[in-house]
Amino acid sequence: MTGLKITSPAKTILFGEHAVVYGYPAIAIPVSQLKTTITIYPNPLGKSNDITIIAPDIGLHKNLTSLPKTHPFFTAFDVVCHHLGITSYPSCTLKITSTIPIASGLGSSASIAVSLIKAFSQFLGAVLPPQTITDLSYQVETIYHGTPSGIDNTVIGFEKGVIFQKEKKVQFLEVGKPVSILIANSGVHGKTKEAVSGVRKRWEQDKTKYETLFEKIGTITQQALDSLKTGHEIKLGLLMNENHACLQSIGVSHPKLDLLVNTARSNGAFGAKLCGGGLGGNMIALINPDHSEEIQQALKQAGATQTYLTKIESTSL
Ligand code: PMV
User: Fold this and answer.
1) Which residue in the list 57, 78, 135, 152 is annotated as catalytic?
2) Is 255 exposed, middle or buried (CB count within 10 Å of its CB: 0-12, 13-18, 19+)?
3) For the chain, which domains are there?
4) Pairing label, strands 271-274, 282-287
5) What is the pLDDT of residues 219-258, one digit of tens each?
6) Which of 37, 105, 173, 218 could join 281 via S-S bond, C-beta 3.0 to 4.6 A?
7) Active-site annotation holds for 57
8) How close is the Cα of 148 to the center of ligand 1, in Å?
9) Residue 29 and residue 12: Cα distance in Å, rounded?
């Protein structure tokens, strides 16, 4: 039987993670090589209000209403029904799979949240605009992450490179020329919630030090925007290195991330940094695509479990 198929990409944060939680801008791009896929099959003979969820990656095969009300899948359905004012719906089976490594700073939870919102709303007959999908998926993201900045669901909801700042209208990324980004997984599980709460605790203990570092990350992000516009890769690489140093100073790197960052740099990358919450997960390197093979090999020798090549490109508005 054919079903309704929805996909959402992964994402990576190019500049500004953590500082974005404190109101500074950050830049993120979708990574379409990795994705969440949801397929919905209607059950014409099923009882109404009966939805089966199958997520083989996490061993889940259940009726939606048997999930706890705080389960992200349940919340996603609840916020869509609430938004559309729907209380009764036809039976269906929803299958969720993802190629995005979990807990890796690549937005796996936001990608699932966005996909669920899109899938449920389309199943219920509504094609929602990206801003609404983004807003509704933020409510789901709060279950995974507490008080996320909103950058993940925004870049994935719009599927465009974004300049994101809390409380401001999202802006879309414009670049002078496409540049290549190599993503490498450290193989250590990232711990976004722990990283964000650790930073908050240390910020509370030493606000002057942390405000200075966040402000520095904000300045680096602004300078990176200029370098992206002019296509100045050398400058952009140096800014990545500076951003990584700030992330080390706020205590969210990991020895394996530092090793991969140094390996990328010493094998010809323009610059490199960890991406996302940190304490594990992925790093990104700005590279000349002609050197991609050597750098990927060096990263794998240094312990990277996966590498992915992607591009920063302008996104049509
Ligand atoms: O680890 P990720 O991919 O969920 O990224 C988290 C980004 C932070 O800035 C650390 C947190 C946030 O909510 O923006």
Assistant:
1) 152
2) exposed
3) 4-164 (3.30.230.10), 175-312 (3.30.70.890)
4) antiparallel
5) 999 999 999 999 999 999 999 999 999 999 999 999 999 9
6) 105
7) no
8) 7
9) 6
